[in-house]
Each structure stands twice: as structure tokens, then as C-alpha cells.
Write a structure and sequence with these properties.
Length: 84
């Protein structure tokens, strides 16, 4: 299995800062583990229904980093204004 590279990260999550890329690569995760983390983030219900145990280990670390990234992006977007 091949460890995740900078290009793998950018292909999977889009353009992100160098610190986040380094954190993701620093987990020692593989491309498959990054793909699994992305799958958990997009929709965990099918994985749970398939009997997959909750993510832990490297996949869990990736999920934590990606969740923080999503939270930071939401914060930077600012509040939305409703136009009724």
C-alpha cells in the first residue's frame, strides 16, 4: 500500500494549506485510508449498516483532521443572511 502524498491529499480534499497537508501525510495513512475517511465524512450510515466498525487508528486521525478543516471553512464563510 502506498502512503498518501501531497497530490493525493489535494485530489481528495481540494486545495488546502500546507499545515493541513503535512498533518494528513504525517499520520502515515495510505490512499485507501484517506478514501475511507472521506467516505465516513460524506455519509457514515451506509458504512455502519454494512457492519463496519467505527473508524479508529489512522482513519480516525484523518477524520479528526478533516473535520477540523471543515469546521474552519464553515467559520471563515461567516454567518449566512436569510433573505425572506
Amino acid at each position: 500500500m502506498t502512503r498518501v502524498t501531497r497530490d493525493d491529499v489535494i485530489n481528495a480534499v481540494g486545495v488546502v494549506d500546507d499545515v493541513t497537508i503535512a498533518q494528513l501525510i504525517g499520520t502515515g495513512a495510505t490512499r485507501e485510508q484517506l478514501a475511507e475517511a472521506k467516505a465516513w465524512l460524506s455519509n457514515d450510515e451506509p458504512l455502519m449498516n454494512a457492519g463496519k466498525p467505527l473508524a479508529k487508528g489512522r482513519v480516525g486521525e484523518l477524520i479528526d483532521i478533516l473535520t477540523d478543516l471543515e469546521d474552519n471553512e464553515d467559520d471563515e464563510a461567516g454567518p449566512t443572511v436569510s433573505q425572506d
